[in-house]
Amino acid sequence: MLNLLLVGSGGFLGSALRYMISQGMQSLAGSAVLPYGTLAVNLLGCLTIGLLGGIAHYREVFSPEIRLFVFTGMLGGFTTFSTFGYETFNLGRSVDLPTALLNILLHMVLGLGAVWFGYWLSRWF
C-alpha cells in the first residue's frame, strides 16, 4: 500500500508540474505549429532522469521508496509519451508529414541527448 501511495502522490505532483510548464512554454511559443510545451517537459524529464539516474548509480543515495516516488511517480507523471504520440499523429494528419517527422526527430535526438547529458552531469555531484 505504501508503494502505491508513493507512486500516486509522485504522479500527481509530476502531472501538475507538467501541466504548468507545458502551458507556460506553449504560451511563450505563441501560435507555433510544433507542440513546444510537450517537447519542453519531455526534454526536462529526460535531463532530470539522466541526472538523478547517474547520481543513483554513482552515489547510491536513493532508497527504493524514493526511487518509486521520484522515478516512477513524479517523472512518470511529468513526461508525456502518450501526449507526444497523439500530437505527432495530429501533426501528420492535419498539418503536414515533415512537421510530424521534425517533432519525432526533436524528441528522440534531443531527449536521448538530455538523458546522456544529465547522466554525464551526475558525475560532478
Describe this structure in words.
There is one protein chain. By secondary structure, the chain is mainly α. The protein has one domain (13-26, 34-122). The protein has helices at 2-29, 36-59, 64-78, 81-95, 97-122. The longest helix is centred in the N-terminal third of the chain and has 28 residues, at 2-29. The radius of gyration is 16 Å and the shape is globular. 30% of the residues are buried.
Brief overview:
This protein has 125 residues and is mostly helical. Helix content is 86%, strand content 0%. It has one domain.
* Helix residue percentage: over 70%
Strand count, sense and barrel status of the largest sheet are:
none
What's the helix-strand series?
HHHHH
Low-confidence stretches: none
Report the principal-axis shape. globular
Structural class computed from helices and strand pairing: mainly alpha
Counting structural domains, the number is 1
List keywords for this structure.
single chain; mainly alpha; about 0% strand
Task: Outline the secondary-structure elements.
Elements: H1 2-29, H2 36-59, H3 64-78, H4 81-95, H5 97-122
Helix pairs in contact: 1-2, 1-3, 2-5, 4-5
